[in-house]
Model the fold of this input.
Amino acid sequence: MKTNWLLGAALTASALALMASPASAATKFEFWYGLSGDLSEKIQEMCSRFNASQADYEIVCVSQENYENNLQNTIAAFRANKQPTVTQISDGGVVDLMLSGAFLPVRQLMEENGYTIDWSNYNSGVASYFSTSTGELLAMPFNNSTAMFYYNTDALKAVGFEGLPATWEEVEDVARKMKAAGYECPIAMDPTGQWQWWEQFSAIHNVPIATNGNGFGGLDAEVTFNQGKFVEQLTFYKKMFDEGLMVHKSKAAGQTANEAFIAGDCQMASSSIADHGTFGTQAKGKWDVAMLPIWAGTERQNSLVGGAALWTLKGKSAEEYKGAAAFYNFIATPEQAQHWSTITGYIPVTNTGFEAMKAAGFYDAAPYKGRELAIQSLTYTPAGEYTRGVRLGNFGAVRVEIQKAMQSVIFDGADPKVALDEAAARSNEILRKFEQTYKGQQLP
Amino acid sequence: MERRAVYRNKVLPWLLIGPQLILVLVFFYWPTSQALYWAFTLEQPWGGGNLWAGLDNFLYIFRDSRYWATVLRSAFYALAATGISMFVALTLASFVDRSLKGTKIFQSVFIWPYAIAAPAAGVAFRFIFSPEAGLVGGINELWPGIWDPSTNGIQALAMVIICHAWLGIGYNFVFFLAALQMIPRSINEAGAMDGARPLRRMLDLQLPLIAPTAFFLLIMNIISSFTDSFGLIDTMTEGGPVGQTEVMVYKIYVDGFKGLDYSGAAAQSIVLMLLVIGLTFIQFKWVERRVHYN
Amino acid sequence: MIERSPYFDAFTYAVMIIGLGLVVFPFWVVIVAASQSLQEVSSVPISLLPSDQLWVNLSEAWERGGLGTKMLNSMIVSVGVTIGKITLAAMSAFAIVFFNFRSRMICFWLIFITLMLPLEVRIVPTYAIAANALMPFQAILDVTGLTWLVQTVSGVQVSLNWNLLNSYTGLILPLVATATGTFLYRQFFMTIPDELVEASKMDGASAMEFFWDVLIPLSRTNMLALATIMFVSSWNQYLWPLLITTDRENFGTAVMQLRFLIPTMNGTPDWNVTMAAALIIMLPPLLVVAFMQRWFVRGLISRDK
Done:
């Protein structure tokens, strides 16, 4: 046993000595992200472009399959001091990271490395989610989107509807007509899609999910999604399911909502604008995209941004930070940003970027026509108290409660108010536990 | 354990037992103490600080009705899977015990499920049971929507239990067969001569004699329902729908690693470990009793 | 069941055939599905006869899952755990049974308690130390002032940092740490008659010579039995590799990979490829169980005594 630690010490010493020698080759740094499949390949492409564009830094991009896995693995690596320099964290994982102090604010990073970025150029709807409560960006926006409603226009024509529905009343009406016309699945709905069916609903109808301005104001927020319009909306979804106007489509059911829409099995679906490109290449039949429906008579507000931003983690070397800064600068250049928004459905995150693409006629024709609606949806109104995002601790766990409530109502026939009340009670417990874990700390 | 012929070296035994002791210390006792630390404090996911919480984490889970639902579900899962598995294995072992011609082949095949990893079986059974594929799902052609484990929690749980039972058949079969083969033929023949039919003999003679083995298997199966279940559930249902296939180990995984509630998961882990130690203790006492009885 | 009536015999065969069906059915489904094309595997109801796409699907599964590396990793881990367990367990059991040293019983119980707590039940604790498994030693060094001493004397900062992420040691060692093998060996060693030990002593042999020349040869069958059980069990590990591997491409194990081959969101439901992958991954332990059955069964049963 004595030999063990001596050996260990000797090994560590020699390892340290080796590491101190100057690095001659390009500085390598790692970037972990949570996308898979088609989108993952696009990121890999982006990474090779960066590597090809300069010789000082080499980025190594690793896919962790999905946002959840990426968060989990990044945390595991961080605890073991093996974290990547750059990691892609989505809206749900943001608050834990913010309070942990485990990251380097992006503004600081860019300043220290001599890059000047016009931070006000970033789309306010996008930026607010990843900024301090006073509006300073903490992470680099990267792949951002919002939720849209997709329609199979062949089916709309078949039931005699002109244009695209804009209100829930119209959606319900069209669904009923489609069902009567023999379409088995008017709307594909996945109750675990609480982002597009629940959170977005709250934003565009201007109802808060939680107090303290959806949590931005402090850790003592409480959830409010078991009241008023929320209960009505869940009751509405239940009614649609019972009448067969909404059909359950998810991975567990063997066909996801998107797959169903692509295959033409379902005629309407709600998904991220990021899928606009995928639908373009794979969907059968004619389709189009529109902003999310609202209830007639409501004043539409801007929708919530989705997707993720790039966070720089603490504990890496100065060289690696230089590399990360260079990478951020690279993806922020107009050409790269436009390229990214072309090959994927993600929206341009800067105002000038969007304007440039619009001026160049990008959005005038297929296959990109319709994507500008995402920007329109995100900027319909300036980001307000209930529409700048959701900042709740352990939001992932709260989201699971919302999903469970929706599932129990839709699958098991639970009463909407009761299910939502239970979800709210549990969510508040989660929030209190979170508050206690970070006692005395303030949200940035 | 007392033998007369032993060695008297002072240092050698420590060198021999050292490596395993170190491993056990590093990978068992040290982690357990760390988990206790997490369970009594509030651990931040990214590290960086703990806040003393006393018994709060434990009280929190004991007050949680969903936790108790999970415990009950785990108990049901354990008993159902064990029951089905042991029943099938015992039946097969009883008939194989007759040693008719050609049973050797059957015997070797019946062990196969033991070799299969839980996720592999999970994937295979998921395909067998999937509502849109052509096996069990075929029934949906006749009665649309009747079989849908993605929305029906009871069906999902049944699916997982059946798969788990299948996995256990090999293990249970080996033990039951060995136990049956240890019963002297004379006892069986005496019973037959007394006019007892096979089923009667099974119930009155053989069952009591293999009871210790059965009890051992009961405990081992229950423990396996804590371990193998993870691989099954993660590949078949991921705890859904609506958490209705979440058993204790899976809940620990979901709460801790997906929900980032390390302290809560640690508290649940401590409770689970105590439970398993308790079961082991019971089993050990019973086995000891049998050994002395013999 | 002594009767020799033909009816009862027929009934016996019937039962066994049904049992065979039950046990073999999932294997059959896997093979059949792995040999079908996408249309065939998606058809409802599915045909239960194998088709001709087996090789195509197998290569596709191999490619897609990167199964070459994964199977190699699994092999390294399984062999590592097997060898580790056999050696360590033999040594520890030898010490416990054949030596009379202070704290012998304490050591025995310390090791024995780990017998019944498999890794799944301990994931949170084991994960807790995965960041730095040497922390207790580091703590000891710090507290006793040795770190400070070494630093002042040689300028070297002793920082014992051993993290288990993405490493073979991380995959192997936590699995070696339980007491299954030790228990098995202990039971066996206890049946070694005293006369053998005394004879060896009278020949002037040392303890280690007794170990090598007498005990090990006698334990050969036990070792084989333990080896088969350990190989199967470590090949089939799922949860621990899942947690400890962030670099799935290089350090993922075969069984872990299955989860990522289930037909996912943006893909087609190509269960035929998934089943082909399952077939590949199931094969090694199945071969071990099928061909090493005698030892395997003996190993399982003698655990109990």
